[in-house]
Design brief:
Structural class: alpha+beta
Strand order of the largest sheet: 2-3-1-6-7
Distance between the termini: 33 Å
CATH architecture of the largest domain: 2-Layer Sandwich
Number of strands: 7
Strand content: 5-15%
Number of helices: 11
Helix content: 55-70%
CATH superfamily of the largest domain: Reverse transcriptase/Diguanylate cyclase domain
CATH class of the largest domain: Alpha Beta
Largest sheet: 5 strands, mixed
Order of helices and strands: HHHHHHHEHHEEHEEEHE
């Protein structure tokens, strides 16, 4: 999940999230914070619907429910990283609670001091009034000091939470990245597709476009040159896709094996087909060389299928139509783009 909020907006959301967490029974940790942050920010429609469904039968959401919501609707992070972030987050919240409690104690003492001063003002003892005024001034200074410390602590906590959230984002990103090609893996693709298909389309513009790509004769490459060269071809394909697909809204992923996918939100079929043609041209021009040598090992081509999303269509059906178009490209001789038939 990407978090586009500004510093000011994220600070406002911090206050909302802390208030929401305090109304439920789950502990204050990064999982709980992330779930409530995405809920409060309106970033995750499936999460919102699931949370509101749970709150019908469980008005105060507990740790088990929050962890389930996180697993099913946010993302997974390895246990070691999550434990580290959890400890850091717990320390942040402990420090904040300590300063809030101290400020509350000072506020209570100051209130008692003001009550005593009010009583002294109605008395006749000038010396007692003078002593009470001095005490009140001291209490006032202590209250100001506590308030200043609380303000500093809140700002430090906000900055630390931002750092922890960045750590969590990086950890989650690693879960979604294919280590060989450096593009999204299948899990990352499924996650982004779910987000794209649950978001409202932009105005009355084009629907979403999808390209499915497959490296031609990849099994022969592995059989003839070995799997190390095959891996080199996959890595080079990932680099081609990262170079060609420059729009930051587009999604590039390794679907599995030698097959890749490109999702173009609100771009339409024509744009998807044009991008697929560009990938084919760029791949065709690529010459794979032996490592630390100038000898060309082989040239590579790809076949592609493009499809536009139909309203209400599932991600699986959409991808199946693009895959069918890709298969027709293979049947027609490879190294070409086929557009899915309009059903």
């Amino acid at each position: 999940m990407e978090y586009p909020e500004s510093r000011e907006k994220s600070a406002e959301l911090l206050r909302q999230v802390v208030a929401l967490m305090s109304q439920h029974d789950a502990p204050f940790n990064p999982i709980t914070y992330t779930v409530w942050y995405e809920y409060a920010a309106g970033l995750n429609a499936r999460l919102r619907d699931a949370m509101e469904g749970f709150m019908v039968s469980e008005p105060r959401l507990g740790q088990g429910t929050i962890e389930r919501l996180y697993r099913e609707h946010v993302a997974s992070v390895d246990d070691k990283t999550m434990d580290r972030i959890s400890r850091d987050f717990q320390q942040v919240m402990t420090n904040m609670v300590h300063h809030v409690t101290r400020t509350g104690d000072q506020a209570g003492a100051f209130d008692a001091e003001l009550t005593g001063l009010h009583t002294a003002l109605h008395g006749q003892d000038t010396d007692a009034l003078r002593a009470r005024l001095q005490q009140t001034l001291q209490r006032s200074q202590a209250m100001r000091d506590a308030t200043t410390e609380l303000k500093v602590q809140v700002e430090a906590s906000r900055a630390e939470i931002e750092r922890l959230r960045a750590d969590l984002d990086r950890a989650r990103e690693e879960v979604f990245i294919d280590s060989l090609t450096k593009v999204l893996n299948r899990k990352g693709l499924d996650h982004r597709l779910g987000q794209i298909l649950t978001q409202a389309r932009v105005g009355q513009g084009p629907t979403h476009g999808l390209v499915m790509l497959d490296i031609d004769h990849f099994k022969q490459i592995n059989d003839r040159h070995g799997h190390l060269v095959g891996d080199q071809v996959l890595a080079a394909m990932g680099e081609v896709l990262r170079q060609v697909v420059t729009d930051p809204t587009h999604v590039v992923a390794r679907y599995g094996g030698e097959e890749f996918a490109i999702v173009l939100p609100n771009a339409g079929l024509e744009a998807a087909a044009a991008l697929a043609e560009k990938v084919c041209r760029t791949t065709r021009a690529m010459k794979l060389r032996k490592r630390n040598a100038h000898d060309v090992v082989l040239s590579v081509t790809v076949s592609a299928g493009a499809a536009a999303h139909h309203p209400g269509e599932s991600a699986q059906d959409w991808m199946a139509r693009a895959d069918a178009a890709l298969y027709r490209s293979k049947q027609a001789g490879r190294d070409r783009v086929t557009v899915a038939e309009v059903s």
